[in-house]
Amino acid sequence: MSPSNHYQRLVSMYAAAPINAFYQPTMEVSEGCASIEIELSEQYHHSAGGVHGSVYFKMLDDAAFFAANSLESEFFVLTTSFTTYLTRPVANGKMRAEGKIVNRNRTQFIAESVVYDDEGREIGRGNGIFVRGKSPLAEAKGYAEG
Predict the structure, then answer these.
(1) 3-class DSSP state of 42
(2) Domain range spanning residue 50?
(3) 3-state secondary structure of 120
(4) Has residue 144 been placed in a domain?
(5) What are φ and ψ of residue 77, in 5° steps?
(6) C-alpha distances in Å from residue 139, one per residue of 6, 74, 120, 133
(7) Does residue 43 carry a pLDDT above 80?
């Protein structure tokens, strides 16, 4: 399978994840990189009117995860640890997360991601370690439809 076909299948798999029916994200994947964007609304807010930290985490983890899975075409990767830093509040507009692989070896991928508001300001960042799982990508929901 060509790399571009694998990337498209990852995009299809992401869109098929039931959680994404709520967030309605869009994603692009390339070698060692992934970019995810969502349109913000009040449904993502905490009681003080800002976007809840769980949305930051999801964006950062997903971007880093798919950057890692772009380099693994046989198995679904797993997040083994992820550290998140929330650096600026946001309430409306769009959030865009950019993930990239910064190191890889035989058993793991280390990825970093940054999330931006729609004015291009950094609002959060994270880094994580990902490993190859045992579940074949071919069996993941949406992957075969890509």
Answers:
(1) helix
(2) 3-139
(3) coil
(4) no
(5) -85, 160
(6) 14, 10, 37, 12
(7) yes
